Amino acid sequence: MNIIRTFRIGGIHPEENKLTHEVETVAAPLPKQAIFPLSQHIGAPAKPVVKKGDRVKVGTMIAEAGGFVSAPIFSSVSGTVVKIDAAVDATGYRTPVIIVNVEGDEWEEGIDRSDKLETVEAHPELTPEGIVESVKAAGVTGMGGAGFPTFVKLCPPPTAKAECVIINAVECEPYITSDYRLMMEHADEIVVGLQLLMKAAKVDRGYIGIEVNKPKAIALLTEKVKADPRIEVVPLKQRYPQGGEKQLVDAVIRRQVPAPPAIPVNVGAIVQNVGTAFAVYQAVMKHKPLFERYTTVTGKRLAHPGNFLVRMGTPMRELIDLCGGMPEGDNKLLAGGPMMGKALTSVDVPVCKGTNSVTVISDSEARRKPADPCIRCAKCVSVCPMGLEPYLLATASAKQMWDKVEAECITSCIECGSCQYTCPSHRPILDNIRFGKSKVMGIIRARNAKK
Amino acid sequence: MDLVLVAVIALGAIGLVSSTVLYVCSKKFAVKEDARIGEVAELLPQANCGGCGFAGCAGLADALVKGADAGSIEGLFCPVGGQEVMGKVADLLGMAVVNTEPMVAVVRCNGTCANRPRIAEYSGLRTCAAMHACGAGETACGYGCLGCGDCVAACQFGAISVNPETGIAEVDEDKCTSCGACVKACPRGIIELRKKGPKGRRIYVSCVNRDKGPVAMKACKAACIGCGKCQKECQFDAITVANNVAYIDPAKCRLCRKCEKACPTHAIVSVNFPAPKPATQPAASVGAANVEPVNEGEAKQ
Amino acid sequence: MGKLIVSLSPHAHGTDSVERNMYGVIIALLPALIVSFFYFGIGSLVVCAASVVSCVFFEWLINRFVLKSDRLTVCDGSAILTGLLLGFNLPSNLPVWIIVLGALVAIGVAKMTFGGLGCNVFNPALVGRCFLLVSFPAQMTSWPVVGQLGSYLDAETGATPLSLMKTAIKTGDASVLNDLPDSLHLLLGNNAMGGAGTIGEVCALALIIGLVYMLWKKIITWHIPVSIIATVFVVSGLLHLANPVYADPVAVVLSGGLMLGAIFMATDYVTSPMTHKGQLIYGVAIGLLTVLIRNWGSYPEGMSFAILIMNAFTPLINTYVKPKRFGEVLQK
Q1: For residue C318, which residues of chain A lie inside 8 Å, CB to CB?
Q2: Measured by CB atoms within 10 angstroms of the end CB, which terminus of chain B is less buried, N or C?
Q3: Sorting pLDDT into bands at 50, 70 and 90, what band is C284?
């Protein structure tokens, strides 16, 4: 364990700006009105099961899964459904939402609100299928940002065999500290969550990958997992994008996931975020569906940045006001961190299942600098964690040479933004690659459909 | 003498070897070309204007022959030669004559800077595709023209330009060959190929906003709010309203222009009609004055 | 509340910029410039100043009146760098009008005709130098002896170590090599016996300090300089072992423009390959070509030509040498 591990290709180390590392989490006040977008996850949007005027409680299902890869949505507040309408969500477009007017705080019965730690040993009745079913029913999705339904990951395709579960506690994005606070405040639950995930995936190896800039969390979790020899806490060198699934698998178990369509389980790993592990614990042990999460609200110019336990559906405006309001001047509001977050066009976008952070970037950092010509310095090539040539992909995409970019593995791009971060000419490399990637994915889909 | 002999023999030998190599290459690497391509190309005007969307007449001829082999030459059209030439080509290739009316690209967005307030600032790659992926763009309208000119870049004929005053793409009808490149380039599907119409006269709904009326109104003063007034006005059943946006079927439209007057937001646009006679001008201003009561009706809705 | 700004991710950017890299290289060149002033005096300053000023002037002129671009590329430091590197590749007694001609070819022909910054195929400074070398062979191969601080055009000249090496090979007489200064003198550059070479190449140590600075600031990676120097060292070492008319490898590596070329000219961003693997291939090929030209070509120095030849191969290397893709090992 002397050599601190990390992934093997590329990577950068952006300025961390973890302003809220030691700010204790507080529960955010209930919003006046909660907005629930119907697609908070990857896959088919959920289908509403309530109608205008219905009374809902905290934890009432308001929309059911709309397909296999989909997840139900639960109300995080009690009150009346005002309307089923469209509102701007994190994509920047108006999408279908359910809007609930908040009245009181009445919870569904059956949700265990006590703090008592339930261990796996105390519940021998739990079966792997039962855990997967509970996770599915509770609408748990990946809490790290992408929002892939968790139960799908726990049921690998028959061609692959899971060997271990890796908990992603890397939090390599600058600014964000919600996972760190969760670890510091709910370490026991996370370990039980991991044990549940391992049981559900029928594996007997578990890892928790944490970057070394969180020594307290490493010490705390190492202490907590002592009792279970199957679980190992793996300290990792600070490096972006270590929180990317493929990079994390490479860093922790030294296996590289092949090019898409391969997924981590093809090399035996199931990767879950710490937030997800916590949500799994709550879903299985406390019968509490996913309707609240830890979210960091941060920004250099915010008066009081902090970490909050937020009911989903809370508009970001209310969280920002809690932190002292939007700074003067033009700002960039991000759902997520500065490397992979989405810039929002409205402060009324609600917090969703994947919103790990609300980041406000101000002043000169909010605007991009004008692009200079590419000087072919090759820095983008050396930082690309997927071993691609971003300069080439960007240029060929801009010139719409789809065959060329496909041959150059554009679909492997994980859109981490390292290339654009490092580019001395401030070129919009990732903007171009993203365009090319979506085109090529479309072409590949069309080709597969023809076959 | 020797010198001359050596020179002649040497050069002769080089010539012989080279010619053999050339002969072998020309036989071995010969490209067999379909004879029909040449025949079709001869029928075409040979202006090599590129109006068909191919690089010159040979390109179109090639595409026509390939299309004929595949069973259809639909979509291939020489705008210069027109119906006459295409008829001859179809005869030659043994295909049915494809009836093609002259078309023109139409940008269906009214969201000028004056109509659509800018609510955000975009600071990234200035292409419509990137801006579209980023969200609604600089305005609250998630359907309207982004004004970054992906269509301009796609147009090979310089027929589209983004008007710096309105921030919206505009089509130069004279240059447009209706090749459809801009239609494919627009990430929001705003551009449509429509019948050019008699004397270039046509009426269309210049908006594709599918938001509900009040939301669309808030985003853009000239948005189609899907109120259906035009549909009621139309006597030819040419207008359909779906997803909160009206569409005028060019096949049924008789260019009566009643719908244009009925539209409370002026989202319906008519082009190339003669300027209104002085007598009718007061009527037009009355139409403009009518906007307000209409809006009230909208609010009640 | 002000407007919200939107763009696609990433929303953060590192501190790197074109200026930072260009001025970084210029700073790395300063030790060599100072040393050259110490050895050549006023002549080195006049040559470098003339070269920098004329390069910047031509860049501005062409941008303003030929390309009609309103972007001020003069400030990014690339023209200053080209000028400085061109000056470093010239003898310190070269008349100004020749330098201006060289700058015109470097900026006008080698850089701007291809489209300016980032688009050139060949290293502009080297194109300028090679143009002058073939156009004015007499002026370009008369090397002032070090230590004449006050003289410029009238400086005394002498034979460089490289020409001694060439003579040894041509005559097959290894004793000529005894006139070579020892390695320490070559490293420091205070070779009092003969001509010292161009302004930039006089002191290998100063150039190595520049290399260390650039590596520290992460302006370049080690791949190109190390592969060139190692290749030259190994190949000329083998030759020396086989036949002592070939000079010993330490002298070969430290003399002439090898250090300058390997550290500053071959590592030029625009004209070198993009992948580390490609950079190693490029470096080894430059090393081999340099040894070939030095020992069997008609010029005593082969670095410039070797780099220019490999510049031409850079697009080919970029096409065929790909970085190791993530997960590639497992696929096979």
Answers
A1: 392
A2: N
A3: very high
Check B130 against C8: CB less than 8 A apart.
Answer: yes
Task: Answer whether residue A283 is part of any domain.
Answer: yes
Looking at A367, A392, A418, the residue that finishes a domain is A367
The whole-angstrom separation of Cα C217 and Cα B50 is: 52
Q: Is residue A272 part of a domain?
A: yes
Q: How far is C2 from chain B (nearest CA, A)?
A: 9
Length of chain B: 301
In a shared domain, residues A115 and A230: yes
- Is residue A97, in this structure, part of any structural domain at all? no
Would an 8 Å CB–CB cutoff place A422 in contact with chain C? yes
The answer, yes or no, to whether residue B50 has pLDDT greater than 90, is no
Residue B98: per-residue pLDDT: 64
Question: In chain C, whose CA is at the least distance from the CA of B131?
Answer: C7
**Could you give phi then psi for residue B207, rounded to 5 degrees?**
-165, 145
To the question of whether residue B49 is assigned a binding role by annotation, the answer is: yes
The reply to whether residue C7 touches residue B123, judged by beta carbons under 8 angstroms, is: yes
pLDDT digits (tens, 9 = 90+) for A307-359: 999 999 999 999 999 998 888 888 999 999 999 998 998 899 999 988 999 99
Q: What is the reported pLDDT for B100?
A: 66
Structure tokens at A67: 């397909």
* 3-state DSSP of chain B: CHHHHHHHHHHHHHHHHHHHHHHHHHHHCCCCCCHHHHHHHHHCCCCCCCCCCCCHHHHHHHHHHHHHHHCCCCCCCCCCCHHHHHHHHHHHHCCCCCCCCCEEEEECCCCCCCCCCECEEECCCCCHHHHHHHCCCCECCCCCCCCCCHHHHHCCCCCEEEECCCCEEEECCCCCCCCCHHHHHCCCCCEEEEECCHHHCEEEECCCCCCCHHHHHHHCCCCCCCCCHHHHHCCCCCEEEECCEEEECCCCCCCCCHHHHHCCCCCEEEECCCCCCHHHHHHHHHHHHCHHHHHHHHHHC
Q: Which of the residue ranges B229-238, B275-284, C33-42, C245-254 would you say has the lowest mean pLDDT?
A: B275-284
What dotted CATH number matches B103-274? Answer: 3.30.70.20
Smallest Cβ–Cβ distance between A424 and the set C12, C18, C331 belongs to C18
Entry pTM: 0.86
Helix, strand, or coil (residue A236): strand
Residue B227, annotated as binding a ligand: no
Write down which residue in A325, A347, A367 finishes a domain.
A367
Could you tell me the two tokens for A47?
């289908």
Shortest Cα–Cα distance, C121 to chain A (Å): 11
| A338/C11 Cβ within 8 A | yes
